[in-house]
Amino acid sequence: MVIDREDTAGTALLLAAAPVGKGRLIDAVGVLPALAAVPPGALTGTDAATLVELADPLDPQAVLTRLRAAVATPGPLSLYVTGQLHLDHRQQLVHLALARTSPSTLRYTALPWHWIAGELRLRRPGTTTVVVDLVADDQAWRRLAAGPGLPALCHGARVYGRVVPPPPRRAIASPDYLKACAAIWRSGARPSLAALHEQVVAQISAEPGATLGALVFAADFPPAQVPGLVPPLSGPAPAAVPAPGEPSGRSAGSAVPPARRETGADPLPAVLAAAESGRHDEAAAAAAAWEQHAHRTHGSGSPQAIHWLEVRADLARLAGDPAASCRLWMVAAEARLTRRQTSDDPEVEGAVDRAHHQWEQLRDADTARALAPALIALRRRVPGRQRGALQVLQRRLERWHDGSEGVTR
C-alpha cells in the first residue's frame, strides 16, 4: 500500500512477521490495522510519507529486496518491526522469524537480524529511525539479555522500542508497545519520539498482566554526542591521517587512504583505538557521527563525507563484517565516480579493489550472490590494475551458483 508518494516524502516500512501455527509467539500482524490508521506523516515525522506494509512475508530475500528499496529512498526512513526472534544454533546469530519459519528451517526461512543492520549502515547518518516491538524465544532471550541487546543499529540511527521474553506456554504475546504508539498518534498528538517512548513504556508497564523484565531501547545519539570518543568540533571536521601501522597504498586489504590533515584535533586515532580494542559498535557510531557532520558542514558527496564513509567501510573490515565492508566500499566508489573522478583514479580503483577483496572474504552464498551484481557492474566501469579481475569474479560467482564453491548458507 502506498500513500502520499512525493519526492520529498519520508518512508515508513512496517514489517510484521511470525510463524504460522504452533510456533507463533506474538500476534505481529494484529498491530498493522492500528498503524495503518495513523496519518503516514506521523510515522516518519514528515508532511507526507510513503507507507509500505509487509504482513507475514514468506521469503527472507523478498523482505531484503523491499528493505533495500526503502534504504535507497532519499528522505527520512522509519522502520517499524514487530515479530519474534530466534537464535541460529550453528552460527549463533539472531533471526527474525517469518511465516514459514520453523526450528529446523530457521537459517533458510528467517531473516537474519544482521541483514537489517547491514542495510541500515548504508543510510546517511541521522536519517533513519527504527522502532521495534519484539518477543524472543528462550535461547534468543538469554543471548540478548546477557549482551548489549540487539546487534547495533545505532550507526546514526535512532532506535526505540522493546524486546520481551517468551510468553507462557500456549499464550500469544501482543505488540502492545506499537499499539500504544498508534493510539497516541491517532488522538492527534505528535510528541517527540523520546517523549512518546516514555509515555508508552509508563502506560504499558502499569497495565494488568504487563510483561516484566523487557529490554527497552531508547537510543537517540545526536551527532555531537557519541559516548567515549572525541565529539565533532564547532568548525569544519578535520580530515584523516593514515591509520597507525597500516600502509598508505591501494592494496585491497589496506586501511583507508590518507588525506591531508587540517587544523584541529584529529578524531580518527580515537576511532581506530576503539576498534582495535574491540569496541567496534562504538567506533562505527563515532565514524557515522563524523560522516553526518561532514554532510552538514561540507555537503553530501564532499571529499570529507566520502572519507568518513571509507572509514566506516574499513571499520566493518576490522569488525569482521566483510558484507558491510563490501557494501560501503561500493557506495564510496560510486560516490567518487559521481564526483566525476575517473575510473582509473587511484582513489576510485582503491575503493573498488577493497570492495572486491571483502567480497572474496564472504562465506555465505546468499550474501555473495546478492552483492555480486553491483560489484560486477562496478568492475566493468573500474577494471583496476589487476588484470582479469572481472573474469576472476565472474568465474567464482559461477562456481557458487553451481554449488562447487565451499561456502555456507
List the helices and strands and how they pair.
Blueprint: E1 10-17, H1 32-36, H2 40-44, E2 49-55, H3 60-71, E3 77-87, E4 94-96, H4 106-109, E5 111-112, H5 113-120, E6 128-136, H6 138-146, E7 157-164, H7 176-186, H8 193-206, E8 215-219, H9 268-276, H10 280-298, H11 303-318, H12 322-338, H13 346-360, H14 365-381, H15 389-401
Parallel strand pairs: 1-2, 1-3, 3-6, 6-7
Antiparallel strand pairs: 3-4, 4-5, 7-8
Helix pairs in contact: 3-5, 7-8, 9-10, 10-11, 11-12, 12-13, 12-14, 13-14, 14-15
Description:
By secondary structure, the chain is an alpha/beta fold. The chain is 43% helix and 13% strand. The protein has 15 helices and 8 strands. It has helices at residues 32-36, 40-44, 60-71, 106-109, 113-120, 138-146, 176-186, 193-206, 268-276, 280-298, 303-318, 322-338, 346-360, 365-381, 389-401; strands at residues 10-17, 49-55, 77-87, 94-96, 111-112, 128-136, 157-164, 215-219. Strands 1, 2, 3, 4, 5, 6, 7 and 8 form an 8-stranded mixed β-sheet that branches. The model is unreliable at 1-7, 221-255 and 257-264 (pLDDT under 50).
